[in-house]
Amino acid sequence: MIKNNLSSKITRILFLPSAFCLLLSVLGGCGYTTRSMISNEFKTIYVKPFVNKIDITQNADSGSKYRIYRPLLDTDITRYVTNKYLADGNLKPVKSETADLILKGEVVEFRKDPLRYDDNEEVAEYRINLVVNLQLWNRKEDKLVWEENGFIGDTTYFTSFASGGVTTKTDDTAITYALDDLARRIVERTVEAW
After folding, report:
1. Cα torsion at 184, 77, 114, 71 (round to 10°)?
2. Chain-centre distance of CA 136, in angstroms?
3. Amino acid 171: pLDDT
4. Which of 102, 113, 166, 186 is 20 to 30 A from residue 47's alpha carbon, by CA?
5. Is 120 exposed, middle or buried (0-12, 13-18, 19+ CB in 10 A)?
């Protein structure tokens, strides 16, 4: 009887601190939240149409031979970013006159770089990079909140020469993936803690 009594006391002594620590860790969580990290004063955003700053008059050299121009890329980026803000829900896209924040951007580079070659030295895999410069402005205070140059969205895809002639993505499909990746990253950058 004394052994059982002593054993149950020891169990309680060991169990209570362990249970308390477990309770604290569950209540404390790991710090993940689905809420935005931006201030409650910012509820709306205006996505100013992106400007295409890709220099199509530049002479091609070995370092820039994969830089290309794609018409209406600036329009596509503006549309994808606006739609991503709508889907995210933390900042509502509105007209510039009523916005709390204004996102300004310029397209500075569109690249299609070969990543891998097959046995016949044909390109088997490409990476598409969309590079933009960004500025986020507090419209009410006319103050720059943050600026990012060389911000990238990208994707990779295999050509028809890879995988026994099976194409996983076309150029257009890959560009759509890169646009979506860029828009997602821009929205994440906007709603994270500054």
Report:
1. 170
2. 15
3. 82
4. 113
5. exposed
The pTM (predicted TM-score) of the whole model is 0.74
pLDDT digits (tens, 9 = 90+) for 151-175: 999 999 988 655 555 555 678 899 9
Mutual angle of helices 171-191 and 73-88, in 10-degree steps: 50
Torsion of CA 106, 112, 113, 119, to 10 degrees: 170
Residue-level pLDDT at 77: 98
Other CB atoms within 10 A of residue 11 CB: 10
Instruction: Specify whether the CB–CB gap between 127 and 156 falls below 8 A.
Output: yes
Q: What beta strand segments (E) does the chain contain?
A: 44-47, 51-52, 92-93, 101-117, 123-138, 143-158
Q: In the structure encoding, which two tokens stand for residue 109, read together?
A: 């580079």
Q: How far apart are CA 140 and CA 86, in angstroms?
A: 22
Nearest to 175 by CA among 142, 151, 194, 153: 153
Q: Are 154 and 129 in contact (CB under 8 A)?
A: yes
Q: What is the pLDDT of residues 3-37, one digit of tens each?
A: 566 556 655 665 556 655 554 454 555 544 444 55
What's the CA angle centered on 145, arms 139 and 150, to 5 degrees? 120
